[in-house]
Amino acid sequence: MNSPDAAFDLLATPIAWAAADGRILGANAACARWLGVSAKRLAGMPLAALEFEGDAFIRAISGQGEGARLRRVPLAFPGAEAPRFADVTLTPREHGGWWIEAHPVDEFPGDDPAQLLPSALSAALKGLAHELRNPLAGLKGAAQLLDRRIVDDATATELVSLIESEVDRLTGLLDRLLSPAPPRPFEPLNIHAVLERVLRLAESDAGWAVRLVRDYDPSLPDVLGDADRLTQAVWNLARNAIDAGAANITLRTRAEHGVRIGDTLHPIALRLEIIDDGRGVPEELAERIFLPLVSGHAAGTGLGLALAQQVAREHRGSLAYRSRPGHTVFTLLLPLWLEEEETPDG
Asked: Which major enzyme category is it (predicted)?
């Protein structure tokens, strides 16, 4: 994709140009480098797809064609772990469409934990991955030595095989954390199938010690998302409830109309609640509960809630909670996909 003026590629300022409907027509080399992709991958994308959260671009190009100046817009190519921030100027082009000029600013303004979360979580996960690789290799080596010494003991052989397979699975997970593959495209999925997977994990983990209750709305349309990531997020929330000593855990789904998530108003959203009667969130952690490495119990890693919130954001949703001893509710809001609508990639 060539610039309309070759001189644009000599500029250090990220610049792009778009059609009147916001579809990106081109970008200079500085813009592509700043977003970490090639200029060709930007061509044809909706400008709004680069906005990590919010709808400032949509509102700007839907105005009266007078341009706009936007401050601290979080920008990222779809699938990126964290946004980059820029002050953006939109100027009308002579023959229709827009010039977009980005002036990068500090990536993480102020001391807002929500802005720091994606980068902090990524750093924490990668650090943890590095620390765990060597112990896992040692465990696999020990399991292989045991396997050679076992004679005529089918049960022991099966247990050693289980250890080896779980070590391989965890090693694969660490490899993905250290060298992440591109995210999979979101697909329409039944949220209740995700919740059933979580309930099976909970039953295996807690056995009869916890009563698990389904309170589903069967009329819900599909969610557009990644089933594995959503399963992990909800399982983290359920596991926290188990660790908090809950005797009852309820998974409740409802449809909610006219929901605002961040700056975006959605016609319909899924309200998923994980309700438990455990000890609740410690008061001293209430303001920091979603930060990486913050945990309410000694054996915790402090990554479960941070990861759950990151998954919610990946799906353009939100995660919040309210808690008191004996009654804690974590609420996950996710936009629902209506069949008459096009998918975000459509």
From this structure: transferase
Rounded Cα distance between 182 and 76, Å, is: 14
Distance, CA of 136 to CA of 167 (rounded, Å): 6
Instruction: Give the global pTM.
Output: 0.52
**Which DSSP string do the residues of 121-162 spell out, in sequence order?**
HHHHHHHHHHHHHHHHHHHHHHHHHHHHH--S-HHHHHHHHH
CA distance 326 to 192: 26
Q: Exposed, middle or buried: residue 116 (CB in 10 Å: 0-12, 13-18, 19+)?
A: middle
Count, residues in the chain: 346
Closest CA to 289 of 271, 304, 274: 304
Q: Give the pLDDT means over successive 10-residue stretches in the chain (346 positions).
A: 58 86 89 88 89 81 74 85 85 84 67 47 62 75 81 78 71 63 77 90 78 92 88 89 90 91 86 92 72 54 75 88 90 77 48
Residues 6+ apart with CB under 8 A from 62: none
